[in-house]
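Methods — Computational structure assignment.
A single polypeptide chain was analysed. Its primary sequence is given first, followed by the predicted tertiary structure written as structure tokens.
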Amino acid sequence: MSETMTAFGKNIIVRKEEGSKTTPGGIVLPKARHSGWAKVISTGINVSAREILEGTLVLVGDYAGVEVNVNDEVLHVIHEDDIVAYKNIGGSDA
């Protein structure tokens, strides 16, 4: 049976992107130092930042939000205030 999740209120569901685990010099980075970029999966209806849409990449803290497993996939539910920056992929800059 397949489960789905929908963000509620001012929450946002994201999938954290895997960062580089090894530096170009060969130093292995601990998990807490991986990239903080995450892809937005779903936004709650009360999210005030209209720039944050499904597919947007957002920069969040390593310990922001709640980690959940849905269909063997690790997702994070964060509050909109946990977003530090964002970038739209393939969108216009106008």
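Note: The domain at 11-17+34-87 is CATH 2.30.33.40 (10 Kd Chaperonin, Protein Cpn10; Chain O).
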